[in-house]
Amino acid sequence: MHSGLNSSKYPHILRQSRISFAWIEKGVHMKTFILSDDAMGRPSAVLPAPTTTFTIVLSPGQAKTAPVPTGARVVLFSASAPFWARIGETAAVPTADVLDGNGPEANPVARALEGASLIGLAAASACAVSLSFYR
């Protein structure tokens, strides 16, 4: 097994890599959200390309949900316009103050999924939202 990481410098990451390889053997083909070593053996901030990416096209005011793939632990968002999201719940474009702690989040970049089975999305104007999943 080659993890691409120096096991003496990053034993916690090597343990994660071993878990990742076990998941691949079981048929889960999603890349791990960890950093890789560069040519000099230092951690680099470059992620592998995701193997699972969804593109959700939203119409103005229309809410949609996207399923979370089995084994996904992290999602990265990118969008063509502002959008609202909720992990594990449906989302809606706010039309009034939301002060109970259950409001949608505007333009998240990355979120841990922590057992969520869906991601709720909504936008005030037409846009496309890209969801890139990692384990």
Keywords:
4-stranded antiparallel beta sheet; 10 strands; 135 residues; 11% helix; mainly beta; Jelly Rolls; elongated; disordered N terminus
Short description:
This protein is mainly β. The protein has one helix and ten strands. 20% of the residues are buried.
CATH level-two architecture of the largest domain? Sandwich
- CATH-defined fold name of the largest domain: Jelly Rolls
Distance between the termini: 18 Å
Number of domains: 2
- What's the helix count? 1
SS elements, strand count: 10
Shape: elongated
Order of helices and strands: HEEEEEEEEEE
Radius of gyration: 17 Å
The main sheet comes to:
4 strands, antiparallel
What is the strand arrangement across the widest sheet?
A: 3-10-5-8
Helix and strand content put the structural class at mainly beta
Mean pLDDT rating? 82
**Strand-residue proportion:** 25-35%
Organism: Azospirillum argentinense
Protein name: DUF2190 family protein
